[in-house]
Amino acid sequence: MTPDSATPGTDAGGSNYHAIQARSVIELELGDCRHISKEQQSILNSALQLVSELAEKEPVESEGCLGGNGLIGDPSVTVPESPPPELLFMLLRVPSDASDIRWPDHISSKTFERMATALIKGDCRGHLFHQYCVCIYVKAISYVYQLSRVAANATVKSQLSQSRKVYIAATLRSIKEFDILTPPSLPAIQSLISGALLMQQLGEINQCWVLNSYAARQIAALGYQKVRNVSTRSDADQEIHSAVYWCYYIDKTLSALLFRSPSFPDMAISPTELIVMEASSPYGPLIRLLLDLSQIQGRLLSVQSQNTSHIHVLNDCRLLREKMEDILPRLQSSRDSAPDPIRHDWIAADFCYYAILVEIHRTRLRCSFTPLVHKECLACARRSLEAFRFLLQHPAEMPGFDDPYPTFFTWTLFLYPLTPFFVLFCHIIGSLDQRDFDLTQDITKSLSRFKGHAHLEKVLKLLTSLEQLCEPLFQAREEGASARPFERPLALSMPETNTGEALASAVDPMMEGFSAGDVHPRNSDMAHAALGPSVDWLTWQMFDSQLPSGWLNVDFGLYGLTG
What we know:
The chain is mainly alpha-helical.
């Protein structure tokens, strides 16, 4: 499987990648569905036809943010010629910021102060002026998002939203002044990364990937990635390293999402070693976790793209899974110590973590079907979507505005795959699991509140269409036509509260360690011994619908499920 063969017909805006993911999941499920009814097979085939039409659409010209964003031509938006001094002062961090909940980026306080000073003094002109403007306005947009999280006054929120529009329009104006023919430089790299972060926030994933790719090429041209020793480094080194690891993170994450070849060159050390975090920022542990996850995504993309033997793929998946096991305790402990106002950001990280695990399991299943791995894949899909639903049900706890979507989509819907949804959809067709169907319905219903963004509307249309394909099966079951006794015994629901204690219990993992499944041969051997030597696909279908009581040894800890 190669990136080119996996994504034919990707449109110019890169907006049909979710349909491509769905097609891949459904094709794998249809590989052997002899023991489900003809009606269920027909629904899966209809779903495959639906997503294939979306995945193989003819390339189109994408207007995107740079070509025709309405904010640029909106007469109600007055764009200042230069960032106002008051804005620069507001964004300055002071030593008394003991608990700064601003989302960090690649522009440190010292770097920002230097840029702000140059703008105030009028010392920068031409391309440098626009590069600094992009960096400062994107930081302002992020800050306004965070202010909206704590603002309770409707008038204040409305003004924050209006300011955000002005900053976005000003940023887009300066981005259009970029000249990729100018010699590479650190300010150019910083502004390209800032521009990519804005495109991510706006849901313009293709533009995000393109801008960040330009930054990666400039980093390679200047040799900034050739870092071998970080024990002693100057302020200039720290500024470069911040740009390097942020560019690396965006590149690996988006390349995995879009199934495109990464642009960032290989590094001699782990990019996590380059992290320089403000002492007052509580986000340090989370940034490290996301960077570690991006490295796993990069390796997984390489595994999926190479034409290697199944043995190599299985070994690589085993190693990646072990790395995920190492990350999980750190994710839990950092979440427990996070300040209450930002603890929901760690639940968004839960979605990311389990979505990546789903991709690892699916890569494993493509080479060799193992029922325990299949079960883990389903459990991870549920866990990921439970976190996603929880965030949708608590929009007030996340930074951002409801027009057109809450900001946590910058982490979830626009940076990480929705494969968990498609995995659960196929399981719903095969097992008629009511709780899984309710979970997907809750998500699509919550997503329907957010309008005004073309890409989000495409995603919602895709998810809604798949959901509607399932509805006749449940209607028939209610009428007694095709009832089945299988139902998942445990509902993994988030509590309807946002207290710190409840959040901690809500995001407890479904198991303490990922020790079950095929990564340990003794587990697989015991599975076959327990069920007998001749187990056909129908038995596995029954297994996937309900875990038999007392079947697993507690040492395996398969997501804490019991009969």
